[in-house]
Structures are given as structure tokens and as C-alpha cells.
Amino acid sequence: MSDLGVAARLSGTVRIVGAGLLGSSIGHALRAKGVDVVLTDTSPAQLRLAVDYGAGRAARDDDAPALIVVAVPPDITADVVQAELERHPDAVVTDVASVKLEPLRVLRERGVDLARYIGSHPLAGRERGGAISARADLFVGRPWVVCRDEETRPADLALVEALALDVGAMPVEMGPEEHDRSVALTSHVPQVVASLLAARLADADDGALRLAGQGVRDTTRIAASAPELWVQILGANAHPVVSILDALAADLARVSDALREPERDGARRTLAEAIRQGNEGVERLPGKHGQNRRFESFVVMIDDTAGQLGRLFGELGELGVNVEDLRLEHSPGAQFGLAEISVAPAAVRGAIEGLEARGWRIAGATNG
Predict the structure, then answer these.
(1) Which of 59, 292, 324, 356 has its CA 20 to 30 A from that of 255?
(2) C-alpha span between 217 and 258 (Å, rounded)
């Protein structure tokens, strides 16, 4: 459950450097809890927009922040962290860059005193950036990695963890090396794969695109991300990303070889093993509330008119069915959509029978 409704753990002023998506979203979440948030950005227009939307107030020279959050692109994170440490000698400084080792390496090479610096990274975001896309609930239920070291003072660590908790996130302690290896696998490589797959669609025939279903939409959703930002992220975390991409390339080569001669001895086993190993990987992904639970799904046909999805959820509630996940897909050329509802296995039969009794059309049931 969200922690946004309880009193703020942070007190005093929080200074946010960078009024883009992450910085403004942090500002909105903290302001909702009554925290004094001051914003600064190298772009006056971006800063004014973030202030107008209520993410905080413009910073003043006499502000005395207890905590500073650096929310700038990875290629200038080290520069800004250093400047903030020097400008505010009594404040704890954290950053929310998606790579942790490279900024730390640069700061250490410069001989910067890092006693008051704690790198962190919220695992949250959107395909669209900027203050206009910011949301107070962006971090709710999401992991927020905090990279402490032997120099970290307990009180400073508590301040950064309080930040994560106040915006609704779940603090996770992790070293910078482990963090960068982890996000290479779970975030950075998926971005590359999604972008390369989506690029195949650019020159596809219109007829083929009309057949696009939820599978291709799911696997290419993040391909809408900003190229400028991802060039920085991938460049800063190149080594672990390359290691995974090389292994993935070898897997793809094996599958391609098998498909070139599908009747060859062992070819079908190679294909089956590739799919099976994918099953095993998916089963390890944490589900709702971090549980490795498997759900079952059924598909409901919904007329493309206002209020139908709300009615479906209302009637599922009347049936006592807890919806674990939902995916929506519009049927090309038809005036209805398909809602894939995931529920606990024990609830499938009652949900289907109850909905059918209320006049809903069930298109099918699958393992979730």
C-alpha cells in the first residue's frame, strides 16, 4: 500500500537540482506531504513550468537545505554533485542517475570529499520526460536503490531512505557495481532490445502493422524513450551492457541456426529449450507485492463505449474477485476491445461464470 498518506519523515528544506520528470515528480510527492521543496534548473523555462505545476518553489540564495537531490542527465551528474557539495557544506547530497559507478569514479578521481554524498536511483520513469509529465505517484511501490559505503554516516543514510519512503518507494541497499550490473540486465539491455525490435517496424507494410497485437506492443513499449538520454546511460554503463548483449547475440545465433534447418537433428530441441528457458526467467520476476506468484488470465470482450471498463471492474468487485493485473487491446477494425484479466487461479472459474451470468462475453482463458 502507498505510504504517501502518512506524515513526512523529512523535515526542513529539500533542494532539487533538475526540474525534469524525476526531479519534478519527487517535488510533487514531497509537496503533497507538506515538505518545503525548492527547485533549480539550467533551463529557466523548465523551471518556471515545474513551479507553475506545483512541484516546488524557485530556489533562493538564502535557502539552507538539509537534503539535496541531483536529478540531471548522467553526463553532468558528477559535476553537479560536486558543485552542490561545495555550495552547501551542511547538506547531504544524493543523485537519482540511472548509473552509479561512473559518477562515483569521476568524483573520486577529482578528490572530492564524498562523506556527505550518497548515490541513489529510483527504478521508475515514463517514456515521456519533462516537468509536464511529472506525477506525484511515480515512485509508489517502486524500488529505490541507495548506495552506501564505509564513509556513510547513519544519520545521512536515514535521510536518503526517508526521501525514498516519503515518495512511496521501497529503499534497497546495494553497492554501485552491483547496481550497474543489475540495471544493465533489467533496464538497459531491455531498452536496446525493444528499440532494435521496434526499428523493424519502421519499414513494415501497413498490412503487417494492422495485425500487431499485444505481444509486439508489450515488447516495444519502452522503445519510445528519448535517444539523447539513452546514449548517455548506455555509454556510462557500457561494460555490463556489452557482456549481456554478447550473450544474447550468441543465443540469437543458436536460434537462427536451428531455424535455417528446422528438420536437422536437435534443431527443435534448441528452439524448445530457448522458449523453456524464457519461461523459467519470467517465473522468477517478482509479481504483485514482490511475490513470485503465478496467476491465470481470461479475456473479456468489451464494447468500445464509455463506462464499460468501469462496469466490468465494478461487477468483478461484486463477485469478490481481486484483479491482479490488466491488459487492454483494441481489436483492429472492430468496435470492441479485449481486456485480459489476471486473477488468482482459485478465482478464475467463479469470475468467468459470474461475468457470463451478467452478460459478458468471455473470449478465452490462459495461464498467467
Answers:
(1) 292
(2) 26
Top pLDDT among 368 and 316 is at 316
Does 6 reside within a domain? no
pLDDT digits (tens, 9 = 90+) for 91-114: 999 999 999 999 999 999 999 999
The cell for 48 is: 518556471
Q: Name the amino acid, one letter, at 42.
A: T
Look up residue 3 and give its three cell numbers: 505510504
Give CA–CA dist 360/315, Å, rounded.
10
Distances, alpha carbon 176 to alpha carbons 99, 204, 225, 285, 295, in Å = 8, 41, 24, 22, 34
Q: Please tell me the distance from the alpha carbon of residue 272 to that of residue 256, in angstroms, as a whole number.
A: 13
On whether the CB atoms of residues 119 and 85 are closer than 8 A, the answer is: no
Q: What is the mean pLDDT of residues 225-244?
A: 94
Distance CA 73, CA 67 (A): 19
Closest CA to 180 of 248, 102, 290: 102
pTM score, whole prediction: 0.76
Q: Give the CATH number of the domain where residue 246 resides.
A: 1.10.3660.10
DSSP state of 360: P
**Same domain assignment for residues 137 and 38:** yes
Q: Are 199 and 142 in contact (CB under 8 A)?
A: no
| Overall number of domains in the chain | 3
